[in-house]
């Protein structure tokens, strides 16, 4: 309890700090935020008569996303909070890891899904949730489960879950704002504009929106791949058992490839949150812009950490 209170008051956890991850998160949020502000400015300039609606939409949706993103993600991924009486081993493992990492315990949830996977979400450690699927609990040994949970807890401790949620949403928000602003500005509130100005606006706005989305997409993919490697490193160093995490990673990736394609497609929109992406073996091999680094790269890193720890 004392360790949890210290962490809540602003002390760093015992997860290894990652300056590379912190720098990438700051840079990603700065660039995407700059794009978002610039995009909003373009809409205001081109659709002068609709600027109150544009400001209201952009501000309102951003605030709603920041405050309710964790709840939205939990519901979309079927997470249901569970008690220590329902899942004593799961809670016990998270209790030990949180004590070891000196961090507040997140809410614990389970998703009734045969796909073996796990994820964490929440805008700050005190409001976070760590969720595992029933498929993961059924397939992993206790030490493998510990490695996966340590990986997810490191996402919470490093706060990269919140950054990924907000960063990924801004690109989608740009597209939504485009549709709403063009409808309100061109179809209703901007009728006094001449046809030439309207035509220019209808050409420029979708183009700028597309650029914002593409840049946001690329930046979040780069950050996502790095943060997965960072979480693997932090989990292996905290538990001191990189081989258990490597075993879990190999087992989960292999089992996911055997899940029916229809179920994988339903889970793919949330790949950035998962411990391992919901992809078939053929899809994983061709993912140049994947949310996760390749299995080989993750296993190589864990092998290096294991060698270092043995020394």
UniProtKB/TrEMBL annotation:
Cofactor note: Binds 1 zinc ion per subunit.
EC number: 3.4.24.-
Catalytic residues in the record: 152
Protein's UniProt keywords contain Flavoprotein: no
InterPro entries cross-referenced by the UniProt entry: HtpX_protease (IPR050083), MFS_trans_sf (IPR036259), Pept_M48_protease_HtpX (IPR022919), Peptidase_M48 (IPR001915)
Pfam families: Peptidase_M48
Membrane topology: Multi-pass membrane protein
Residues passing through the membrane, by range: 21-44, 50-68, 161-178, 198-219
Needed co-factor(s): Zn(2+)
GO cellular component: plasma membrane
Residues given in the record as Zn(2+) binding sites: 151, 155, 228
Localisation per UniProt entry: Cell membrane
Domain Peptidase M48: 86-304
UniProtKB keywords: Cell membrane, Hydrolase, Membrane, Metal-binding, Metalloprotease, Protease, Transmembrane, Transmembrane helix, Zinc
GO function terms (MF aspect): metalloendopeptidase activity; zinc ion binding
Biological process terms in GO annotation: proteolysis
The protein's enzyme class: hydrolase
Similarity comment text for this entry: Belongs to the peptidase M48B family.
HAMAP family for the chain: Pept_M48_protease_HtpX
NCBIfam families: PRK02391.1
Name the record gives this protein: Protease HtpX homolog
């Amino acid at each position: 309890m004392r360790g949890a209170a210290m962490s809540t008051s602003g002390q760093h956890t015992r997860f290894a700090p990652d300056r590379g991850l912190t720098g990438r998160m700051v840079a990603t949020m700065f660039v995407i935020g700059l794009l978002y502000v610039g995009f909003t400015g373009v809409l205001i300039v081109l659709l002068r008569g609709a600027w109150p609606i544009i400001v209201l939409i952009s501000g309102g949706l951003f605030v709603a996303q920041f405050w309710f993103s964790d709840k939205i993600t939990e519901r979309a991924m079927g997470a249901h909070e569970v008690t220590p009486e329902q899942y004593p081993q799961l809670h016990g493992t998270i209790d030990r890891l949180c004590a070891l990492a000196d961090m507040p315990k997140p809410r614990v949830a389970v998703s009734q899904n045969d796909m073996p996977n796990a994820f964490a979400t929440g805008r700050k450690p005190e409001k976070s949730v760590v969720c595992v699927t029933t498929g993961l609990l059924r397939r992993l040994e206790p030490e493998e489960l510990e490695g996966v949970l340590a990986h997810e807890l490191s996402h919470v401790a490093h706060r990269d879950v919140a950054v990924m949620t907000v960063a990924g949403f801004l690109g989608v928000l740009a597209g939504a704002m485009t549709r709403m602003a063009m409808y309100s500005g061109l179809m209703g509130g901007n009728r006094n504009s001449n046809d030439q100005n309207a035509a220019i606006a209808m050409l420029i706005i979708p183009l700028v929106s597309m650029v914002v989305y593409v840049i946001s997409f690329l930046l979040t993919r780069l950050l996502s791949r790095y943060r997965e490697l960072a979480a693997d490193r932090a989990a292996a160093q905290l538990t001191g058992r990189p081989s258990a995490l490597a075993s879990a990673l190999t087992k989960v990736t292999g089992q996911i490839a055997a899940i029916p394609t229809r179920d994988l497609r339903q889970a793919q929109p949330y790949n950035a949150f998962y411990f391992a992406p919901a992809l078939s073996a053929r899809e994983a091999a061709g993912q140049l812009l994947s949310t996760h680094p390749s299995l080989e790269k993750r296993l190589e890193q864990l092998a290096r950490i294991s060698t270092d720890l043995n020394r």
